[in-house]
């Protein structure tokens, strides 16, 4: 099995951090978002991945080569952001077997081993999460046996509460790419985009059986506030790391404080990640992600994202600052 990971988006909702860091490499609970996904793929036996890249392509390539040398990686640039079908179409020359497609705006808790156990007459699997606010998502309609019948984008009526989370397995990859081609042969949708969900509908209309599978958790990493929410979840469920007790420093968990962090006369937590080499003096931090080798002095920060090597002094409030920034209040 191969995998396709589309990641060509600009990450505009996470600026200014994404001016210098590719969105999939933004860190949550001390680890890039993309790494959580890659670390789930390797135990499945995936060794060849097509990355659909764009902005900051060189940074993504270098990271994959350095951190995942065991992966046979292909990088294809999406020059025109023409939607999810347009992105996946670029991977077609590399796909000659069943394929897993994962979008890395979110993290998920799913049993991907279902792929190996699935009957051969399943053309694919689409993972879904039951939600209350169904109007925000594309929702999947199913028959009595859980096979997809269609997807409705942001429905006004409660036709389904099964949100499409952007994780797909396609065993019948030939019919799938035929659906992609058919989708792109039609006029584009809003914003000049072609949607992968139309390719799934093409398959179903021709008799393909695409099963839905639930996920235990689904965590957004596409906006500052949801990145912080996901950080908290990860800290609570295993990524937390308490520092050694230090006089004059109070800690309220969950937190993750990495090696070589210096804390002086400060109150840290809850929901704070501080990466290696950072120094925090005479400060208060709540609901924050602080990058490596940053310097924070006399600050009171909440709901904030601070990039690596940033310097923040004498500031109170909320900040989103990119790597190598300086803020003096």
What can you see in these coordinates?
By secondary structure, the protein is α/β, with parallel strands linked by helices. It has two domains: 2-220, Spore Coat Polysaccharide Biosynthesis Protein SpsA, Chain A (Alpha-Beta Complex); 240-328, UDP N-Acetylglucosamine Acyltransferase, domain 1, CATH 2.160.10. 21% of the residues lie in helices and 34% in strands. The strands form five sheets. Strands 14, 15, 16, 17, 18, 19, 20, 21, 22, 23 and 24 form an eleven-stranded parallel β-sheet that branches. It has a seven-stranded mixed β-sheet with strand order 5-4-1-6-11-8-12. A two-stranded antiparallel ribbon has the order 2-3.
CATH topology of the largest domain: Spore Coat Polysaccharide Biosynthesis Protein SpsA, Chain A
Number of helices: 7
The whole-angstrom Rg is 21 Å
Could you tell me the strand content as a percent range? Answer: 25-35%
> Based on the structure given, which CATH architecture of the largest domain is correct?
Alpha-Beta Complex
Number of strands: 24
> Which range best describes the helical content: under 10%, 10-25%, 25-40%, 40-55%, 55-70% or over 70%?
10-25%
Q: Into how many domains do the coordinates divide? A: 2
Oligomeric state, counting identical vs distinct chains? single chain
Briefly note the structural class of the backbone: alpha/beta
CATH superfamily of the largest domain: Spore Coat Polysaccharide Biosynthesis Protein SpsA, Chain A
Summarize the structure.
The chain has 329 residues and is an alpha/beta fold.
């Amino acid at each position: 099995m191969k995998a396709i990971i589309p990641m060509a988006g600009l990450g505009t909702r996470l600026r200014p951090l994404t001016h210098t860091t590719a969105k999939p490499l933004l860190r949550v609970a001390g680890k890039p978002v993309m790494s959580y996904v890659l670390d789930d793929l390797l135990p499945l036996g995936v060794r060849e991945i097509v990355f659909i890249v764009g902005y900051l392509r060189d940074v993504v390539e270098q990271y994959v080569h350095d951190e995942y040398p065991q992966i046979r990686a292909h990088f294809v640039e999406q020059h025109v952001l023409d939607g999810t079908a347009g992105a996946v179409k670029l991977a077609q020359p590399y796909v000659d077997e069943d394929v897993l497609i994962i979008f890395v705006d979110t993290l998920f808790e799913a049993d991907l081993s279902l792929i190996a156990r699935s009957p051969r007459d399943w053309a694919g699997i689409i993972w879904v999460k039951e939600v209350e606010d169904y109007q925000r998502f594309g929702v999947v309609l199913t028959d009595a046996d859980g096979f997809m019948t269609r997807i409705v984008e942001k429905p006004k009526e409660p036709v389904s509460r099964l949100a499409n989370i952007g994780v797909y397995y396609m065993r019948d990859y030939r019919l799938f790419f035929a659906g992609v081609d058919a989708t792109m042969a039609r006029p584009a949708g809003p914003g000049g985009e072609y949607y992968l969900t139309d390719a799934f509908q093409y398959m179903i209309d021709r008799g393909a059986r695409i099963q839905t599978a639930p996920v235990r958790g689904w965590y957004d990493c596409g906006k500052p506030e949801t990145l912080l929410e996901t950080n908290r979840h990860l800290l609570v469920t295993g990524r937390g790391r308490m520092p050694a007790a230090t006089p004059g420093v109070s800690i309220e968990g969950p937190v993750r404080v990495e090696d070589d962090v210096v804390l002086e006369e400060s109150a840290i937590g809850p929901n704070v990640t501080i990466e290696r080499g950072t120094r925090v003096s005479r400060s208060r931090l709540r609901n924050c992600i602080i990058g490596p080798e940053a310097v924070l002095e006399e600050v009171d920060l909440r709901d904030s994202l601070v990039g690596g090597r940033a310097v923040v002094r004498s500031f109170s409030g909320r900040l989103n600052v990119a790597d190598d920034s300086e803020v003096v209040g």
